[in-house]
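Format notes (please read before filing issues)

Several people have asked whether sequences and structure tokens are stored in separate files. They are not. Every record keeps both together, in the order shown below: the sequence lines, then the token lines. Line labels are part of the format and must not be stripped during preprocessing.
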Amino acid sequence: MILSKINQKQNHRLGKEIAIRADGSQDIGIGHIMRCLTLADGLTVDGAVCHFVVRHIPQTLRQLIVQKGHLLHELPAGEIFCPRDDDTAHAAWLGTSWETDASHTRELLDQIKPSWLILDHYALDARWETQVLPSSCRLMVIDDLVDRSHIAHLLLDQNVGRTESSYKQLVPEDCEILLGPQYVLLRPEFARLRAQSLSRRQSPHLEHILITMGGADKDNITGWLLDCIEDLDFKQRLTVTVVLGASASHAETIHKQAAKANYRIKVAQNVTNMAELMVEADLCLGAAGSTAWERACLGLPSIIFSLADNQRGAAETLSNEGYAYFIPQQRPDDMKQELLNTLQDYAHPYILKNASSKAAALVNGSGTAIIRQKIGALS
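Then the structure lines:
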């Protein structure tokens, strides 16, 4: 029998039970867990008890889930993953077969008896959902890829440019589909600080750059960016704040690099005040992941980079629509020159202001509240 290993609580349960199936790792990233945490925090306020069902997750995220008062259930190890012709594109992220994962998860759900299952996992599709979903349980799927079928009652895709026709053949007719950045799952502090952030950008000057490359940054894009900034002719007027994830692979190297730099660098790791740091920054160099929506809500202009194949499509769309500036992978010298040219452009106040206004029009920070209302209405 599969039991929760951490933070088991048998008493004081209020309202409905909600199960969340998601993972986080160096390959998967931490964005899936983080946006599910945002939703779980809100649902807890509404009286729900949220259960995170995970197979791969770093210790820092385990601790964060528990610290926030949610229940954490870790699935046991399955057999070694062996690719098959009918696997999903990201099947390897599961670390075992979908059938094994479905069996383990269903056993756990039979104990939890949730009224909702929230699924945020690129490796799983309708086959898994059919095996796992109890008859009395509703299913919400969070997706970004439009590459597999679901039996969802509610589907969220928060990316730019999606239309209902994208999912027409992938979900049941009665599935409610929520599309676009207006539904982005953001923590409440971003909506709370939005007005303050937009106000300070009315007369902007490029003096403070924020660098944030996600949880691990295994390729050390952060270090490359710091090297590039050394070649800016206005670097002496800059303050650069580097935010490293809890599992940052090159943290020691970055700290040494910052100590030797010819401009001002502040390094922080595993921060809890990201919204405030974004408000203080004039420009962000960041990954094209979930933090792209946080920056947009605060009107923070961004130069973005794709750290995984599944980020590239969203990065290109954001750039093509003018919400951010995307620098794709190319020859290192070409990437460096494009970055330096773009930084020179953003040094012009009117370009910085226009970029801020465009970004702010994309996301207003109300998405989490809307999803909470939808789940409550369908329960």
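For reference, the curators noted about this record: The longest helix spans residues 31-45. The two ends are 28 Å apart (CA to CA).
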